[in-house]
Amino acid sequence: MWSLRILLLLIFFISPNLMAKNQLVYFEPKHVELIGVIKKLQFAGPPNYESLKNGDKDETGPYLILNNPVDVQLAPKSRSDTDIPEKNVSLLQLVVDHKKDWEKIKEGNFVQINGTLFHAFTGHHHARVLLMIEKVTVISKQRMTNKKIDITDEDKEFLKRE
Fold first, then answer.
1. Do 61 and 95 form a contact (C-beta atoms < 8 A)?
2. Where are the domains of the chain?
3. CATH 2.40.50 for the 22-161 domain, yes or no
4. pLDDT tens sequence across 131-156
5. 71 neighbors 88 (Cβ within 8 angstroms)
6. Within 13 Å of residue 77, how many CA atoms lie on the same side as its CB?
7. How far is residue 59's CA from residue 129's CA, in Å, rounded to a whole number?
8. Distances (CA, A) of 124 to 1, 54, 128
């Protein structure tokens, strides 16, 4: 009995990463509050969505690199033809509707963003999940512009297909 308790304590303290789960958040209409760093990323746009060098339009935009990945599910009692559950999401494309928010969406800012999530469904969407901004709070202006973006393998795989 005593050895079983010791074993359970060892498992608890030695392998917290094995027990840690991603935060579960939901697609719209549910609201989310997420924290991360703003990063500007560049992608090829129309007409071919393949190469800026070959004349495709530049689609540079703001993205949120989450501190901790999330799992995104359909909101309870909701139906959607476009929202597909995603696991281990660390990269969110930001949709900025209000002019006042642009002053806070600066590369390297550490922010808290409130809004709603929806799944990518067009060629202009360069992350698996997008965040429609309702409110941005700048926590600090760390200016981490040279920091390598640290995203999950699932997000890296999505970007490879971009």
1. no
2. 22-161
3. yes
4. 999 999 999 886 655 556 678 899 88
5. yes
6. 1
7. 17
8. 59, 18, 11
Which 8-state DSSP code applies to residue 133?
A: E
Which position has the token pair 């959607």?
80
Give the count of alpha carbons within 13 A of 45, CB side only: 9
> Is-contact 116 29, C-beta < 8 A?
yes
pLDDT surpassing 90 at residue 120: yes
| The predicted structure's pLDDT at residue 129 | 97
Nearest 5°: the CA angle 148, 150, 154 is 135
Q: Which residues contact 5 (CB under 8 A, 6 or more apart)?
A: none
Q: What is the chain's alpha carbon radius of gyration, rounded to the nearest angstrom?
A: 18
Give pLDDT tens digits for 80-109: 778 899 999 999 999 999 999 999 999 999
Question: Phi and psi at residue 140, in whole multiples of 5°?
Answer: -155, 155
List all residues 6 or more positions away from 58 whose beta carbon is below 8 Å from its beta carbon. 42, 44, 45, 52
What's the one-letter identity of residue 61? G
